[in-house]
C-alpha cells in the first residue's frame, strides 16, 4: 500500500477474546483483520462469512460490522488500521473484488509483534518505523491478494498540497479561498478536483480529518468533549458533536464508552491460572 498523505495514522495491535466474545461497530477506517487461533463469524452489513486461523480479510470504511468469536475456544486475532484514508470509487471497486478471506502471509505476525513493541515509544524515529511496518503489512496483504503496487495512482498536485496543508493546519481556522490560494488553483477547480478524485469536498475532507483526530483523543486521552472539539479545530462543541454523530452514528461520549467496553472485554495475553496448593 503506497503511503498517502491523507492517512492520518496507523494502528497495529492484537487481542484475545474469551469464548463467545462479540463486537459490534461502525467501521470508519481501512483495516486488515487476521486470525491467529480460534475463529470468528463476521457480518458486514448483510454479508456473512467465517474467518478461521491463518486467514485475513480487508474491511472498508462506511459499513456496520459485527464479530461473533468462537464459542468453544479463545480467539487470538491481529489488526492493522489505516485511519483517515480516503478511497476513490475505483479503489473501492478494486478492493471489493478481493475474496473475503485469503491466506495470511507468514510475515504479518512478526511484523505485528514488532510494531507492538514500538507503539508506546514517542520519539520520531520509532513513529516512522511503526508507520513503515504498517505499510509493509498492507503491502504483504495486497501482494497475497494479487494486486500489483502500480494500482496506486498519484493524486493531482493541488489535492496533495491541500491534504498537506489540512494535515498541518487542521486545528486552525482558515477559509476555502485561503486553501485554494495555497494550492495555486481557483476555489471551483479545487472543489472539482476533490469531487473527481476523492468523492468529497475540501471542507468535508477537513471535517473528516478533524474527526479522526478527535477519535484518537477520545480513545487515548481523558479530555472532555469540549476540550477535544476546540483542540481539533471545531468552532464549537455542538458543531463537533453533530458532525461526529452524522459520521459515526454515535455521539462522542457513546463512542468513548464503546471503546472502553472493547478494551475491557479483550484479553491481550493468556496467562494460565496457577493451581492452588
TrEMBL record:
SUPFAM superfamilies to which the protein is assigned, alphabetical: Homeodomain-like, Regulatory protein AraC
Look up the domain of life of the source.
Answer: Bacteria
Q: Which SMART domains does this one have?
A: HTH_ARAC
- Asked if the record carries the keyword Lipid biosynthesis, the reply is no
Pfam families per record:
HTH_18 (PF12833)
Q: Does the keyword Transcription apply?
A: yes
Where does the HTH araC/xylS-type domain lie?
160-258
Q: What is this protein called?
A: Helix-turn-helix domain-containing protein
Q: Which organism is this protein's natural source?
A: Tichowtungia aerotolerans
